[in-house]
């Protein structure tokens, strides 16, 4: 567990990737960069590419592209699926042990899906992923904000027992952002449709993080959901162990103690900034916080609501 002295350190711990000459650009045939591949994955990709005819990928210098014969989204999707199926069968990368049977879209420059791929495999190609995070909160009789915080289940394959936003989840292929909000509120916190529908999109946070499985540039659509003071979310699908209702000073304390899943800490900090708990007058790093909450990512995303 990493202990922090400031909000800025919390953000830097997550938004940690810098330009590295050893990174290989993964691009579409039109030149659009859609991912970044690390050397270890490149070695495995080169070996796999030699076993398939025609080769699905073109490896030149510091760039990987699809073969020219893979002209459609379905063809590119099948090529990536075959690659990951083989790596999964061979147990080439630990990331694929967490296979979820959940597809994520990878976007081209026109904002439309260029191909889709298994969620667990996305760090291997370093493609951008998109999710929703919901800050559920309430106000006491004096108007003071309290935030609902989730404790991830001990059985979670990633970040077990860590603190999390009340509700969060990746946006599956074919789902819109709001549909994902409604689905995740029900599955993770037993929040019914009529209450979940009140959640409103309050912005987006972007960051570029490095995990044990590879690079992960991410954009999270941030939603706020004010709950009635007498309402309590409840675990449903086993992904959450329990929920806490804490004032923002308690949230800050747990965050600096390193108890939050790193990207969820970013979403909580964004909430604190927007609701005036963190201000330019009480935090000397205020401007730098904004830079790390809204990192410019070199990859395209959807051009319309998902």
Automatic annotation (TrEMBL):
Name of the protein in its database record: Nudix hydrolase domain-containing protein
The organism of origin for this protein: Absidia glauca
GO molecular function: 8-oxo-dGDP phosphatase activity
Superkingdom of origin: Eukaryota
UniProt xrefs under PANTHER family: THIAMIN PYROPHOSPHOKINASE, THIAMIN PYROPHOSPHOKINASE 1
Residue ranges of domain Nudix hydrolase in the record: 127-270
Pfam families, A to Z: DUF4743 (PF15916)
Gene3D superfamilies referenced in this protein's UniProt entry, alphabetically: Nucleoside Triphosphate Pyrophosphohydrolase (3.90.79.10)
